[in-house]
Amino acid sequence: MKKLLVLAIVAGALYAAWRTYAEDHDERDLWAEVTDPVS
């Protein structure tokens, strides 16, 4: 039972880290698009 709890905690932490990375990546893409000079 302890292994299952540890696995759930690790999975939750990885999911939270992935969401933070994905949101940051999307924000950087949007910022790059907005500040891109018009050719």
Strand percentage, roughly? Answer: under 5%
Poorly predicted regions are none
By DSSP (H or I, 4+ residues per run), the number of helices equals 1
Largest sheet: none
Describe this structure in words.
- The chain is an all-alpha fold and 39 residues long.
- The protein is built from one helix and no strands.
- The chain has one helix at 2-35.
- It is rod-shaped and about 60 Å long.
Give a short overview.
The protein is 87% helix and 0% strand.
Please name the defining characteristics of this protein.
about 40 residues; mainly alpha; 1 helix; about 85% helix; DLW-39 family protein; DLW39-like; signal
Layout of strands and helices, then pairs:
Blueprint: H1 2-35
